[in-house]
Input
Amino acid sequence: MRKILHVEGIPGAGKSTTAQRTAELLSTQTTVPASWVLEEADDHPIMPREKRRQSRQPDFATICLTAWEEFVRTNEQMIVLDGYAFQHTVRFLYANDVSRKRIDEFFDAWQIVGGHASTMIFLAVNDPVAHLQSLLSERGEKWTKNLVAYVEHTNIAQRHAWHGDAGFIEFWVHYQSLCLELLQRLKFPHEVIPARSWTDGQLNKLALSLCDA
Output
């Protein structure tokens, strides 16, 4: 059985809810209890806060691969990772305006390291513009201000002159497109499902089928 399940998607797609519930469901169906790791955990087992702070370093891709290789080599748990595979790696490279060729090369190397142990559920948003507009209203002024500021300070946003709420939306729309394109390169078991659409029964069946693949 594969022991690493990645749950991915853009903000508001339901990564944390899906990852937590998947871990709970897997724990009742497997001999090894599944644990869930929150994307922003300071003590994340692969990319803790101090490593994420190095995201603008020229050798960040190497930092990511080294950390991933160490985790795959030593992990013995059934683990559900919320937003690591793309969010902690590809998203930073994309934000830094790294070339698509280098992103593809990184992603291919990343899956060679851990593809034998991995599966993925990607929560795709059908209408990302409407979704993100709604999210900006739902999350409130503080969240919006912080995330818009993050986007505005990225290299890719500065190159494209993405500003304010509109720039925030452009950033994540293009990011989801990038993720969906990278999924075409993915060689380990994975499934793309509509965001916020699953039932417990569907999620349980999907997670078990992926991990048993």
